Amino acid sequence: MPTSLPLLPGSVIDDRPAMLGVLGGGQLGRMFVHAAQSLGYETVVLDPDRHSPAGRISHHFIEADYRDADALRELAARALAVTTEFENVPAESLAELALKRPVAPAAEAVAIAQDRIREKAHFTRCAERSGVAPAPYAAIEREADLAAVPDALLPGILKAARLGYDGKGQARVTTRGELAAAWQGMGSVACVLEQLLPLACECSVIVARGRDGQIVHLPVQRNLHRNGILAATEVYDGNLPAATAEQARAATIRIAQELDYVGVLCVEYFVLQDGRLVVNEMAPRPHNSGHYTVDACDASQFDLQVRALAGLPLVQPRQHSAAIMLNLLGDLWLDGAGGLRSLPWSQVLALPGAHLHLYGKTEARAGRKMGHLTFTAPDAASVRERSLAAAALLGIEAF
Ligand code: ADP
Ligand code: MG
Predict the structure, then answer these.
(1) How far is it, in rounded angstroms, from Cα 181 to Cα 262?
(2) Please, where in the chain does CATH 3.30.1490.20 lie?
(3) CA distances from 138 to 21, 166, 212, 222 (A)
């Protein structure tokens, strides 16, 4: 039976509530499932890991590789529309699913976001109108490209064009010798070399765009990274200069429109010490820096993902509370002696405006995202005070 959009909440097919599908069973998929289920949809998750956070709570779970043809057939048979929560899901799998069901985002947009070379080319095109360009960079696809690198790109960061995340697949290089060694160390795969920029801070913007081109945005988020991993996101009036925030918002809308994007898109930016804004990368899905929207906005990034997928109206969200999100990495649970420690949740949850989200992962590992903690408050000063108190209790370095 073909899908007719909008797929209204409460639709019943063969005696069951309509089902939405998601490729990937991580925490982003889990929060998509929460949002879909609260509108009454059933859900189906496809992930290779039988203990995946989203798989654990979904109505239906398909344990399979993302390329498994039978599994993709089953997903398309069960789900009336399919999204992804994992940016490295094979674009061919999305294209395959799109032959049978509405899929958002489209395979082509995901393929561009998966490849830093194509992604930067897209940003450069959009910069002609938005004025927000990527860092100076060179694509390195073969040995000869190393010699052609301009001196101005050193010191720089060499990044694998594909499959990097949380600072993985990256190396800081100062000399041409280090550059050549780092490229070989990465297996001589396609890379980009980016100039190392003097950052004042980082920010990101999440937009949602419907099939009809309607677009809404979430507030501009200021992000603190530690060791290449997001540590904290702060969202309140004055978190960034107003002109910078407006520039980032406008640039993100252009990036989404030029892709003819459907779904939720996050674009990350650098704010340089001289105040300039530089576009870094995009994620074709909800983003870690948008988790605060679940508790601090009247529509979360996951609500928007469900609406965009199902063809429901997108309404401009409103942030009702100042918010700070702290990522809870596995490190917090490790006692340094090979054991695990328990965390003082009773004290943390006694702080006003604390919203704890744990993803149901049973094994804490260094750098692994186990959950997040969002604080909401009426103003920036009190949300900072509460989240710093929680950080001290949990052993998270102050920010
Ligand atoms: P990932 O896909 O791992 O998130 P990013 O390209 O976002 O990769 O890099 C991770 C972090 O490394 C960034 O959030 C930023 O803190 C730092 N970084 C990346 N590129 C640069 C750069 N060109 N100059 C300075 N810092 C950078
Ligand atoms: Mg990043």
Answers:
(1) 40
(2) 136-195
(3) 38, 21, 36, 27
Locate CATH 3.40.50.20 in the chain. 12-103
- pTM exceeds 0.85 for this model: yes
Q: For the domain 199-394, what is the CATH superfamily, name and number?
A: ATP-grasp fold, B domain (3.30.470.20)
Say if residue 1's pLDDT is above 90: no
- Its CATH architecture, for the domain 12-103, is 3-Layer(aba) Sandwich (3.40)
Is ligand 1 within 6 A of the CB of residue 162?
A: no
DSSP 8-state secondary structure symbol assigned to residue 5: S
Instruction: Count Cβ atoms within 10 A of the Cβ of residue 257 and give its class: 0-12 exposed, 13-18 middle, 19 or more buried.
Output: middle
Instruction: Write out pLDDT tens, residues 300-347.
Output: 999 999 999 999 999 999 999 999 999 999 999 999 899 999 999 999
- Specify the domain boundaries for CATH 3.30.470.20 within the chain: 199-394
Closest ligand 1 atom number to CA of residue 169? 3
pLDDT digits (tens, 9 = 90+) for 108-118: 999 999 999 99
CATH for 136-195 is 3.30.1490.20
Q: How far apart are CA 156 and CA 153, in angstroms?
A: 6
Per-residue model confidence as pLDDT tens digits over 160-179: 999 877 767 899 999 999 99
**Which of 162, 168, 170, 287 maximizes ligand 1 atoms within 8 Å of its Cβ, making it the mutation to test the pocket?**
170
